[in-house]
C-alpha cells in the first residue's frame, strides 16, 4: 500500500468541503497546518515517558539513575521487575499506535502516518517533558512498523527474536531489526510510498544513535545480557540446597 491509497483523512475532507483551489494561500495554509499537527502532536505523545512516570510515581526513583540510565522497557525490567517493564512496554506501544493513526487520519493516509511515526519515536528519544532524556525508541518504532505493514513487522520481529534468543543481547537484536526495517518496508510498500521509507530511515538513524553506547560495550565485550530466568534458576538452586 502506498500513500496514494484512498482513505478518509481530515485534510482531504476539508480541502473538498471548503472547495480550496491548489496553489492558493488557504490551500497551502491547510496543508502546512496539517503537517505541523502530524508532527507536533505525536512528538508530545512520544515525550510522555511511562518509564519515568512509573519509576518516579510508584518506586520513588528515576529509572534513568539506575542501570543503563535508559528510560525504556529493558532497564525497567532490570531495575524494577517484570510488572514494571510490562506496564512500560504496553503504554509505550499504545502511545505509538495512537500517534501513528492520528497522523494517518489527519493527513494523506500513510504519508501522515509516516510523519507521525517519526515524530513519536523522536519524542520518545528526546522527550520535552523529561529534559530530553528518554528511551531508545525501539518499542515505538516497532508499533509504527506494525501499523505500516504487518508483514514487515512480523519479519522484523522474527529477526529481533532470533538475535536476542541466540545471543541474549537485546541491544544487538534491536539494532539488527532496526537496520533491516526500512529495507523490508520498501519491499512491501513499494516505490509509490517513498515518504514512509524516508521517514523510517530517519527514525532508524536516531534509534541507532541512541544505541551507540551499547554498540561500544558490545565491541568491548562488556554489554549486559538479558537474564529473564535468573531469579527462577536461583530459587531452584536454593530449593535444591535446602532439600539436599
Question: Key terms for this structure?
Answer:
12 helices; 244 residues; mainly alpha
Which structural category do the helix and sheet elements fall into? mainly alpha
Distance between the termini: 62 Å
Total helical elements? 12
Query: What is the total number of structural domains?
Result: 1
Report the C-alpha radius of gyration, rounded.
20 Å
Q: Main sheet, how many strands, which sense, barrel?
A: none
The low-confidence runs, each spanning 5 or more residues with pLDDT under 50, are 1-5, 232-244
List the helices and strands and how they pair.
Elements: H1 10-17, H2 25-46, H3 50-57, H4 73-80, H5 82-106, H6 110-125, H7 138-148, H8 150-167, H9 170-189, H10 194-210, H11 212-220, H12 230-243
Helix pairs in contact: 2-5, 2-6, 3-5, 4-5, 5-6, 5-7, 6-7, 6-10, 7-8, 7-9, 8-9, 9-10
Describe the structure.
The protein has 244 residues and is mostly helical. It has one domain (10-228). Helices cover 72% and strands 0% of the residues. It has twelve helices and no strands. The protein has helices at 10-17, 25-46, 50-57, 73-80, 82-106, 110-125, 138-148, 150-167, 170-189, 194-210, 212-220, 230-243. Helix 5 packs antiparallel against helix 6 (110-125), helix 7 packs parallel to helix 9 (170-189) and helix 8 (150-167) packs antiparallel against helix 9 (170-189). The longest helix has 25 residues, at 82-106. The chain starts with 9 loop residues before the first helix and ends with a helix. The relative contact order is 0.12.
